[in-house]
Amino acid sequence: WGLLLLMVGLTLGKVAAARCPAPCICDNLRAHVLCLNGNLTAIPSTIPQLTKKLDLRGNSFTVIPVGAFLTTPYLTHLDLRRCQMKKLEEGAFRGLGRLVYLNLASNSIALLYQESLDGLSSLQQLILEGNRIEEIQPGAFGHLGSLTVLDLRANALVYLPDMVFQGLQALRWLRLSHNALHVLGSEAFTALPALRRLSLDHNELQALPGEALARLDGATRLDLGHNPITYVAEEALAMASLQHLFLDHAALQDVASDAFTHSPQLRTLDLRENQLQGLPPLAGAGGLARVTLAGNPLLCSCLLRPFYDWLAKARVQAEGSCAAPPALRGRPLDSLRPSEMRCGHPQLSPSPPTPSEQPKSGSSRQCPRGCTCSPDFHHGSCENRDLQVIPQGFPGDTRLLDLRRNAFGTVPPDAFPGLKELVSLHLQSCGIRVLHPGALRGLESLVYLYFTNNRLSTLAAAAFEGAPQLAYLDLDRNAFTHLPASALQLLPSLISLHLRHNAIGELAEGDLAGARGLRWLYLSGNAIERIAPAALAPAKMLEKLHLEGNHLTEVPTVALRGLLTLSELKLSRNPIKHLGDGVFLPVASSLQHLYLDNMGLERISPSAFVGLGPKIRSLYLESNKMSNIPNMSNFTGLEILNLRDVPFHCDCQLLPLRRWIDKLNLHVGATCGSPAEARGLKVKLSTTFQTCPGWGRVKAGGATPEKTKAASKPSKKKRSRKSPARGFKSSRA
């Protein structure tokens, strides 16, 4: 046999050598083929079948067609860098079930289709660095269950939708650096249980994406450097396993004392090269061992002493040096004595340098008195200066202007002259009651506008005149009783509208007439009792609708008609007691995430979820009072199911639910409320089902043939009497 195998091997080797394509070099001993920097326009069809490593760098393929590698099923490594590729056909890599490494860097790929990477079940490393990817279709990575490293650096990603990385159960490192990300879906990183490192540096994030990051329970390292983040808010980061956080080279001016309270494992915090004059004691960060503050304009006065004392008490090592007062300039923090950190020193000025004290290289470096302007980041800030009039005179190339926490009261016409390049404007917590017509005139590049926590109750029709590119409008925590419909008419580019925690009572027809491109509408925490049938009709591109915490008593089924792209619907904390038949039918073809928790829900009709099925990725039903669960066996795509705090009655009528939960292989949190002997037990662990007809099929691995046979007849009778649509009983009845 050994001789025969040797002869077969030699024969195959000769055949393989004979089939080596002319422009390529074949190393049959190692099963490597190199076709480098040639003029190939198609994948050679005569590559030896037994090839394991194929290097095609520097060719001109443009498109990888379906089944391009079917003749080389033994490939483990494939390099397609710099091949001028623009498109991966769906099924392009089908047949490469042994491939573990795929490099597609430095091409011109703009879109990843749902099946572009189909067939790569063993792939461990996927390199897509340096392409032009603007969009990733949901499901694009659904077949890559073995992938451990995904490299998407240096692409053109602007936002990440929810569940975009679904299927990557083994992923450990996700690299998203050097994109243009400024919006992350709240569930963008859901279903990444093995992720340990996330790289989001060199993007356009203006705030810490805390809600999205909270999904990453196991991540230990987070890179957020080189983003224009100005402030880390209270309890902003809740990552249970995070140990190393990098926020270097951002635009930080302040960090809340309890920003990291919910990240108890944090060990190192890198805040190099920001605009921090100091830090408060970082309460709750009990495990912190090192804080790096080098390159910040630290003001080593008495104002810094609480932080200094906390460093000593918590035994935290700090790296950084004083920028002021002059007597302490250049002194390392760890060399200071508390007695040197004084206030009232004649050479000490706690205020930032005035324009007269700053070096000027021309008019572009001007800055209003009392404010700070960063030429490197094109940022201006007068945050928390108790200003009553909006200052003018910022550099013409300012792109982010932070005016939060002042006392302006009103925003007059032409309030921001000469700021044609301004992209982001922060006016949170300024006591603003009136936004005059023409206030934003001239802000032709403005994309982000933040008016959170003011006193606005109405907007004039011309309030947003002069800002045609405005895409993200945040009006949370104001005093609106109706949507500012007329003002929205001037915002053709509006994508995201935040009106949470206002006093809106209803959505009327015409409220969204000017928001035809709207994708995300956030209306939680209002007093909405009614949504007119045609109120949402103009927003045909709507993807997210958040209505939690309102006064709705029924699902607004009629108003949902025509929303063919809606993927996320939140109805949590509304007093909806009953879900009728087909209430989600208008959005059944697109809905992926449904929130129905904390409603006091008492009854779900057997056909309430009709039309929903494999597309549903997450379903939240916790903290309700329903007495039955409809049959959801066709919800085959579920990745999150929450059934906590539902009083299930664990008797034989609940056995179908028990079977379904077992098949899901998800942590659903379902517990028994009764009978008494099962109260508090997980449904999966309750022994009350063991006397039920058909129990042997649930535990088929341990059932004897006799028991299975004996149980089969009664269970068949029960199924013949009970329609599947009646679902899974959970009550005592």
From TrEMBL:
It comes from the Eukaryota. One of its GO terms (cellular component) is plasma membrane. Its main location: secreted. Keywords: Disulfide bond, Extracellular matrix, Glycoprotein, Leucine-rich repeat, Repeat, Secreted, Signal. Residues 19-53, 366-400 form the LRRNT domain. It is found in: Secreted, Extracellular space, Extracellular matrix. Residues 714-733 have a biased composition (Basic residues). The keyword Transferase does not apply. Residues 323-365, 696-733 are annotated as: Disordered. Associates with collagen and binds to collagen fibrils. Belongs to the small leucine-rich proteoglycan (SLRP) family. SLRP class IV subfamily. This is Chondroadherin-like protein. The gene is Chadl.
